[in-house]
Amino acid sequence: VGILAFVARYIVRLRVLSWRHLHGDDWFGIAVLVFFAALTGCKLGTYHFGANKDFTERELLKLSECQLARVELGSKLQIAAWYFYASFLWGLKAMVLFLFSRLSLPSLQRRLLHVYSVIAAVTWLVVILTISLSCRPFSRNWGTVPFPPHSCSNRTQNFYTASVLNIVTDALILSIALPLIWNLRVPFARKVALILLLCSGIFVISAAIVALLMSLLDVASTLNTNLWATREEIAGILAVNAPILKPVFHRSFWHR
Fold first, then answer.
1. Contact 197, 96 (CB under 8 A)
2. Can you tell me the distance from the alpha carbon of 86 to that of 84, in angstroms, rounded to the nearest whole number?
3. Where is the Rhodopsin domain (predicted)?
4. Residue pair 79/46 in contact by the 8 Å Cβ criterion
5. Structural domain boundaries of the chain?
6. Which helix (H) or strand (E) holds 248?
7. CA gap 247, 221 in Å, rounded
8. Given CA atoms 19, 24, 25, 30 in this order, what sign does their dihedral have?
Protein backbone atom coordinates (compact mmCIF):
# COMPACT_ATOMS: atom_id res chain seq x y z
CA VAL A 1 0.00 0.00 0.00
CA GLY A 2 2.81 2.40 0.90
CA ILE A 3 4.69 1.82 -2.34
CA LEU A 4 1.48 2.11 -4.37
CA ALA A 5 0.79 5.48 -2.73
CA PHE A 6 4.22 6.73 -3.79
CA VAL A 7 3.78 5.34 -7.31
CA ALA A 8 0.42 7.13 -7.58
CA ARG A 9 2.06 10.34 -6.34
CA TYR A 10 4.74 10.32 -9.03
CA ILE A 11 2.31 9.36 -11.78
CA VAL A 12 0.23 12.40 -10.85
CA ARG A 13 3.22 14.72 -10.45
CA LEU A 14 4.80 13.71 -13.75
CA ARG A 15 1.49 14.08 -15.54
CA VAL A 16 0.88 17.54 -14.08
CA LEU A 17 4.55 18.65 -14.15
CA SER A 18 7.57 17.44 -16.06
CA TRP A 19 10.40 15.87 -14.09
CA ARG A 20 12.36 19.11 -14.52
CA HIS A 21 9.73 20.97 -12.49
CA LEU A 22 9.47 18.58 -9.55
CA HIS A 23 9.83 20.23 -6.16
CA GLY A 24 11.91 19.48 -3.07
CA ASP A 25 9.23 17.31 -1.48
CA ASP A 26 9.03 15.23 -4.67
CA TRP A 27 12.78 14.60 -4.73
CA PHE A 28 12.90 13.94 -1.00
CA GLY A 29 10.05 11.48 -1.46
CA ILE A 30 12.35 9.27 -3.51
CA ALA A 31 14.71 8.96 -0.53
CA VAL A 32 11.74 8.25 1.75
CA LEU A 33 10.57 5.52 -0.61
CA VAL A 34 14.05 3.94 -0.49
CA PHE A 35 14.02 4.09 3.32
CA PHE A 36 10.57 2.48 3.39
CA ALA A 37 11.60 -0.32 1.04
CA ALA A 38 14.78 -1.00 3.05
CA LEU A 39 12.81 -0.87 6.32
CA THR A 40 10.27 -3.36 4.99
CA GLY A 41 13.05 -5.68 3.83
CA CYS A 42 14.72 -5.56 7.25
CA LYS A 43 11.43 -6.37 8.98
CA LEU A 44 10.78 -9.33 6.72
CA GLY A 45 14.31 -10.60 7.34
CA THR A 46 13.89 -10.21 11.10
CA TYR A 47 10.58 -12.09 10.96
CA HIS A 48 12.26 -14.90 9.01
CA PHE A 49 15.39 -15.24 11.16
CA GLY A 50 14.12 -14.08 14.55
CA ALA A 51 15.84 -11.64 16.91
CA ASN A 52 17.52 -11.95 20.29
CA LYS A 53 14.65 -10.29 22.14
CA ASP A 54 12.29 -13.04 20.95
CA PHE A 55 14.15 -15.60 23.09
CA THR A 56 14.96 -16.06 26.74
CA GLU A 57 18.54 -16.72 27.80
CA ARG A 58 17.66 -20.36 28.50
CA GLU A 59 16.17 -20.79 25.02
CA LEU A 60 19.26 -19.29 23.37
CA LEU A 61 21.54 -21.69 25.24
CA LYS A 62 19.68 -24.60 23.64
CA LEU A 63 20.20 -23.37 20.07
CA SER A 64 22.90 -24.71 17.77
CA GLU A 65 25.65 -22.47 16.38
CA CYS A 66 23.82 -22.33 13.04
CA GLN A 67 20.59 -21.27 14.75
CA LEU A 68 22.42 -18.67 16.83
CA ALA A 69 23.95 -17.27 13.65
CA ARG A 70 20.46 -16.85 12.19
CA VAL A 71 19.27 -15.05 15.32
CA GLU A 72 22.31 -12.76 15.17
CA LEU A 73 21.52 -11.93 11.55
CA GLY A 74 17.90 -11.20 12.41
CA SER A 75 19.03 -8.97 15.29
CA LYS A 76 21.37 -7.06 12.96
CA LEU A 77 18.49 -6.50 10.55
CA GLN A 78 16.35 -5.27 13.43
CA ILE A 79 18.92 -2.67 14.52
CA ALA A 80 19.30 -1.60 10.86
CA ALA A 81 15.51 -1.25 10.74
CA TRP A 82 15.70 1.29 13.57
CA TYR A 83 17.93 3.55 11.45
CA PHE A 84 15.68 3.24 8.42
CA TYR A 85 12.60 3.79 10.62
CA ALA A 86 13.94 7.07 12.01
CA SER A 87 15.10 8.29 8.60
CA PHE A 88 11.76 7.33 7.05
CA LEU A 89 9.65 9.18 9.64
CA TRP A 90 11.79 12.31 9.58
CA GLY A 91 11.91 12.12 5.79
CA LEU A 92 8.12 12.41 5.77
CA LYS A 93 8.44 15.51 7.95
CA ALA A 94 10.93 16.98 5.48
CA MET A 95 8.43 16.41 2.66
CA VAL A 96 5.75 18.34 4.56
CA LEU A 97 8.19 21.15 5.38
CA PHE A 98 9.17 21.43 1.71
CA LEU A 99 5.47 21.55 0.81
CA PHE A 100 4.85 24.36 3.31
CA SER A 101 7.89 26.26 2.00
CA ARG A 102 6.10 26.66 -1.35
CA LEU A 103 3.15 28.43 0.26
CA SER A 104 2.77 32.19 0.62
CA LEU A 105 3.34 32.30 4.37
CA PRO A 106 3.46 35.47 6.50
CA SER A 107 6.89 36.39 7.83
CA LEU A 108 6.19 34.96 11.30
CA GLN A 109 5.15 31.57 9.97
CA ARG A 110 8.07 31.63 7.52
CA ARG A 111 10.46 32.08 10.45
CA LEU A 112 8.69 29.34 12.39
CA LEU A 113 9.07 27.08 9.37
CA HIS A 114 12.84 27.64 9.42
CA VAL A 115 13.01 27.07 13.18
CA TYR A 116 10.94 23.88 12.99
CA SER A 117 13.12 22.62 10.14
CA VAL A 118 16.17 22.96 12.39
CA ILE A 119 14.30 21.29 15.26
CA ALA A 120 13.35 18.40 12.97
CA ALA A 121 16.99 17.93 11.91
CA VAL A 122 18.23 18.06 15.51
CA THR A 123 15.60 15.61 16.79
CA TRP A 124 16.44 13.18 13.99
CA LEU A 125 20.08 13.35 15.08
CA VAL A 126 19.04 12.75 18.72
CA VAL A 127 17.15 9.61 17.69
CA ILE A 128 20.10 8.35 15.63
CA LEU A 129 22.48 8.97 18.54
CA THR A 130 20.12 7.18 20.93
CA ILE A 131 20.04 4.14 18.66
CA SER A 132 23.82 4.23 18.26
CA LEU A 133 24.99 4.98 21.80
CA SER A 134 22.46 3.47 24.21
CA CYS A 135 23.94 -0.02 23.84
CA ARG A 136 27.71 -0.30 24.27
CA PRO A 137 29.61 -1.99 22.84
CA PHE A 138 27.47 -1.69 19.73
CA SER A 139 27.90 -5.38 18.85
CA ARG A 140 25.79 -6.32 21.88
CA ASN A 141 22.74 -5.23 19.88
CA TRP A 142 22.89 -8.58 18.12
CA GLY A 143 24.41 -10.56 20.97
CA THR A 144 22.96 -13.95 21.89
CA VAL A 145 25.21 -15.82 24.33
CA PRO A 146 25.82 -14.24 26.77
CA PHE A 147 22.37 -12.69 26.67
CA PRO A 148 22.50 -8.90 26.05
CA PRO A 149 21.09 -6.42 28.60
CA HIS A 150 17.62 -4.92 28.27
CA SER A 151 18.94 -1.77 26.55
CA CYS A 152 20.45 -3.93 23.79
CA SER A 153 17.53 -6.31 23.24
CA ASN A 154 14.16 -4.69 24.03
CA ARG A 155 15.54 -1.17 23.44
CA THR A 156 12.70 0.66 25.19
CA GLN A 157 14.85 3.81 25.20
CA ASN A 158 14.58 3.82 21.40
CA PHE A 159 10.80 3.57 21.57
CA TYR A 160 10.44 6.44 24.00
CA THR A 161 12.92 8.74 22.26
CA ALA A 162 11.71 8.15 18.71
CA SER A 163 8.00 8.17 19.55
CA VAL A 164 7.99 11.25 21.79
CA LEU A 165 10.15 13.32 19.43
CA ASN A 166 8.12 12.11 16.46
CA ILE A 167 4.83 13.18 18.03
CA VAL A 168 6.21 16.53 19.25
CA THR A 169 7.74 17.47 15.89
CA ASP A 170 4.57 16.44 14.03
CA ALA A 171 2.55 18.70 16.32
CA LEU A 172 4.97 21.60 15.77
CA ILE A 173 4.83 21.22 12.00
CA LEU A 174 1.03 21.08 11.98
CA SER A 175 0.90 24.19 14.17
CA ILE A 176 2.22 26.17 11.21
CA ALA A 177 -0.80 25.31 9.11
CA LEU A 178 -3.54 25.37 11.74
CA PRO A 179 -3.99 29.16 12.16
CA LEU A 180 -3.34 29.97 8.51
CA ILE A 181 -5.43 27.65 6.40
CA TRP A 182 -8.38 29.96 5.83
CA ASN A 183 -6.21 33.08 5.45
CA LEU A 184 -3.80 31.68 2.88
CA ARG A 185 -3.78 33.32 -0.53
CA VAL A 186 -4.24 30.09 -2.44
CA PRO A 187 -7.09 28.67 -4.55
CA PHE A 188 -9.93 27.03 -2.65
CA ALA A 189 -9.04 23.59 -4.03
CA ARG A 190 -5.52 23.89 -2.66
CA LYS A 191 -6.93 25.09 0.65
CA VAL A 192 -9.05 21.93 0.82
CA ALA A 193 -5.92 19.88 0.17
CA LEU A 194 -4.19 21.58 3.09
CA ILE A 195 -7.18 20.86 5.34
CA LEU A 196 -6.92 17.21 4.34
CA LEU A 197 -3.21 17.31 5.13
CA LEU A 198 -3.95 18.81 8.54
CA CYS A 199 -6.61 16.21 9.34
CA SER A 200 -4.41 13.37 8.15
CA GLY A 201 -1.55 14.78 10.23
CA ILE A 202 -3.71 14.60 13.34
CA PHE A 203 -4.54 11.02 12.40
CA VAL A 204 -0.84 10.20 12.04
CA ILE A 205 -0.11 11.61 15.51
CA SER A 206 -2.92 9.46 16.90
CA ALA A 207 -1.52 6.42 15.09
CA ALA A 208 1.94 7.11 16.53
CA ILE A 209 0.55 7.27 20.07
CA VAL A 210 -1.38 4.02 19.62
CA ALA A 211 1.68 2.34 18.07
CA LEU A 212 3.84 3.40 21.02
CA LEU A 213 1.35 2.14 23.60
CA MET A 214 0.72 -1.18 21.86
CA SER A 215 4.43 -1.79 21.30
CA LEU A 216 5.28 -1.09 24.95
CA LEU A 217 2.53 -3.46 26.10
CA ASP A 218 4.44 -6.29 24.42
CA VAL A 219 7.91 -4.85 23.95
CA ALA A 220 9.52 -8.30 24.00
CA SER A 221 7.82 -9.29 20.73
CA THR A 222 9.63 -8.20 17.58
CA LEU A 223 6.60 -9.15 15.47
CA ASN A 224 4.23 -6.98 17.52
CA THR A 225 6.64 -4.04 17.45
CA ASN A 226 7.11 -4.25 13.69
CA LEU A 227 3.41 -4.69 12.96
CA TRP A 228 2.43 -1.55 14.84
CA ALA A 229 5.34 0.39 13.34
CA THR A 230 4.18 -0.68 9.87
CA ARG A 231 0.66 0.61 10.55
CA GLU A 232 2.14 3.93 11.64
CA GLU A 233 4.33 4.09 8.52
CA ILE A 234 1.43 3.40 6.15
CA ALA A 235 -0.65 6.08 7.87
CA GLY A 236 2.20 8.56 7.41
CA ILE A 237 2.67 7.72 3.75
CA LEU A 238 -1.04 8.11 2.99
CA ALA A 239 -1.21 11.38 4.93
CA VAL A 240 1.72 12.99 3.14
CA ASN A 241 0.76 11.82 -0.35
CA ALA A 242 -3.02 12.27 -0.19
CA PRO A 243 -3.03 16.06 -0.92
CA ILE A 244 -0.80 15.53 -3.96
CA LEU A 245 -3.38 13.15 -5.49
CA LYS A 246 -6.04 15.90 -5.62
CA PRO A 247 -5.67 16.46 -9.42
CA VAL A 248 -6.90 12.90 -10.02
CA PHE A 249 -10.41 14.09 -9.14
CA HIS A 250 -10.35 16.83 -11.78
CA ARG A 251 -11.66 15.97 -15.23
CA SER A 252 -8.89 18.00 -16.84
CA PHE A 253 -6.30 15.60 -15.40
CA TRP A 254 -7.62 12.77 -17.57
CA HIS A 255 -7.76 14.88 -20.75
CA ARG A 256 -4.21 16.19 -20.83
1. yes
2. 6
3. 15-251
4. no
5. 2-255
6. none
7. 42
8. positive
Contact 165, 148 (CB under 8 A): no
Convert the pLDDT of each residue in 48-73 to its tens digit.
898 888 888 888 888 888 999 999 99
By CB atoms closer than 10 A (0-12, 13-18, 19+), residue 93 is buried
Q: Tell me: pLDDT of 167 over 60.
A: yes
The closest alpha carbon to 242, from 142, 92, 134, belongs to 92
Sign of CA dihedral 187, 188, 193, 199: positive
DSSP 67-110: HHHHHHHHHHHHHHHHHHHHHHHHHHHHHHHHHHHTS---HHHH
pTM of structure: 0.83
What average pLDDT does this structure show over 108-125? 92
pLDDT-derived band at 251, boundaries 50, 70, 90: low
Fill in the amino acid letter for 4. Answer: L
CA distance readout (Å), 37 to 40, 174, 186, 230: 5, 26, 34, 12
Is 244 in contact with 9 (CB distance < 8 Å)? Answer: yes
**What digits encode the pLDDT tens for the residues 169-213?**
988 888 877 766 666 565 666 666 666 666 666 666 666 666 666
